[in-house]
Write a structure and sequence with these properties.
single chain; 418 residues; alpha+beta; two-stranded antiparallel sheet; 20 helices
Length: 418
């Protein structure tokens, strides 16, 4: 492992442990010791190893850890290059401000929805801030992910539009989002005139993006995911307001399933979320529920992937019987372990993002044929987005009709850098 990778990992490992989230004095003492060990390790790496700071910054950005690095390395900033310190400091303060703004907007929307008889559930980013990051409310987020029951979708869309949000379909038909996806994107633009795509607007503090979900993953044939999810909601206090969150175990599923979306499958920010969840709720976590639902929904490979990430990289203990009960074949276990160990700190992950996603795609599903079936029957819109094509162009339609050959051609060209 390169010294840059070691330092990034030290940052992530320090962020996993929170004294404020632990109840017992003995556990707090143990966590404090681990935090101090990570401080000494980071200092040792900075002083004794030849760090490529540009590569370190790029790796932090990929893993979504820049604001966390400011916290982890705050006592050693005088030893870092001035330019890097400026990036860490400004990103930390921006995330602190923007996270507060997202929470404020969510609570405003939750009040509107509650007045209309709809429970609005925050998931992922904004839903984790006070639950998992009370000591560091700086987890990078670009939008507000919320969940409602499917029967409430039409009313939820209407309420968001009344609140000033506009549907953003990314040039695709709404029918595609409703039937082939499990969320709709809404944007509320600020006072500045809007130019460009909403994807770029995510980083603009003058706008807010809401992803309205009615499920946590794509629907599968003859299979319902987490059928009791809405019956297992828990109450939680956000800024003194009582809200509903997914149960701890269903939050774990939401985080693990997020790995299957195209993006940064190996990003340590998401692994930190899971690690902090398991760390905080270790004494009450219902592993039997997770195992039963994973088997019923056929997502054991996804659960294994996430658990191995947090055990191998972040030192989270997973009960021995959990590995056994997930019942993955020996070759599948070995393949997942090797993929994580070999690629988490791969130098050019951004260049190889699609290649890594395709390889992970076959590891994150329990059946070999499920990802194959998805690729062969991928919606034209998803096919076009993945390959950067105009979704409804005549040329795209031609490539889509012969997509098996096109996929093979593009894959071979990428592998051999043609």
């Amino acid at each position: 492992m390169s010294p840059e990778a070691e330092l990034v990992l030290a940052v992530a490992q320090k962020m996993v442990y929170s004294v404020r989230s632990i109840d017992t004095p003995a556990a707090k003492d143990g966590i404090s010791k681990r935090i101090n060990n990570q401080k000494y390790r980071a200092l040792s790496l900075i002083k004794e190893r030849d760090i490529n700071w540009s590569r370190f910054k790029d790796s932090l950005a990929y893993h979504g850890l820049i604001p966390f690095a400011y916290v982890s390395l705050k006592e050693h900033l005088s030893l870092l290059p001035k330019g890097l310190v400026e990036v860490l400091t400004s990103t930390y303060h921006y995330c602190l401000m923007f996270s507060s703004r997202l929470e404020e907007k969510f609570l405003s929307l939750a009040s509107i929805f509650e007045a209309n008889g709809i429970t609005l559930i925050p998931i992922k980013g904004v839903g984790l801030l006070e639950d998992l990051y009370p000591d560091y409310p700086i987890r990078p987020s670009t939008d507000i992910d919320v969940l409602v029951q499917e029967q409430d979708i039409d009313r939820a869309v209407g309420l968001l539009e009344e609140a000033g949000f506009e549907k953003h379909l990314e040039g695709l038909k709404e029918e595609y989002w409703r039937k082939k996806q499990y969320h709709l994107v809404f944007v509320r633009f600020g006072r500045k005139s809007y130019q460009g795509e909403a994807a770029n607007e995510k980083s603009n503090g003058h706008s807010i993006i809401v992803e309205l979900h009615w499920d946590l993953d794509y629907r599968r044939k003859r299979r319902q995911l987490l059928s009791q999810m809405f019956k297992r909601l828990r109450e939680f206090s956000m800024r003194g307001r009582r809200i509903k969150l997914l149960s701890v175990e269903d939050t774990f599923f939401a985080l693990a399933l997020h790995q299957r979306r195209f993006g940064k499958t190996l990003a340590l920010r998401d692994a930190c979320d899971i690690a902090r969840l398991l760390n905080k709720y270790a004494s009450s976590f219902d592993w039997d529920y997770v195992l039963n639902e994973a088997k019923k929904s056929k997502v054991c490979s996804t659960i294994f992937f996430s658990l191995y990430q947090v055990q191998y990289l972040l030192g989270i203990n997973v009960p021995t019987y959990v590995w056994r009960e997930l019942n993955l074949s020996t070759w599948k276990q070995r393949a997942i372990r090797r993929f994580i160990e070999k690629n988490t700190f791969l130098a050019d992950k951004n260049i190889q993002a699609k290649n890594l996603y395709l390889r992970a795609h076959f590891l994150l599903y329990d059946s070999f044929w499920e990802p194959v079936d998805y690729i062969l029957n991928i919606p034209q819109e998803q096919f076009a987005r993945f390959y950067g094509l105009a979704p409804y162009a005549k040329k795209t339609g031609f490539f889509y009709r012969y997509r098996l050959f096109y996929i093979i051609f593009r894959t071979m060209r990428r592998l051999f850098n043609l």
